[in-house]
Amino acid sequence: MNNQKTYSTTRLIFASIAGLAFFAGIVFWPAGTIDWKAGWIHFMIVTISMLISFIYLRRANPAVIEHRLRSHKGTKFWDKIWFGFFTPAFLAIYIIAGFDAVRFEWSTMSLWLWPLGLVLWLSGYLLFTWAMGVNPFFEKTVRIQSERGHRVIDTGPYRFVRHPGYLGFFGWSLSTPLFLGSWWAFLPALVSIACVVIRTTLEDQTLRQELEGYEEYAKRVRYRLTPGIW
Question: Which of 4, 64, 66, 162 is the most exposed place for a label (fewest CB within 10 A)?
Answer without folding.
Answer: 4
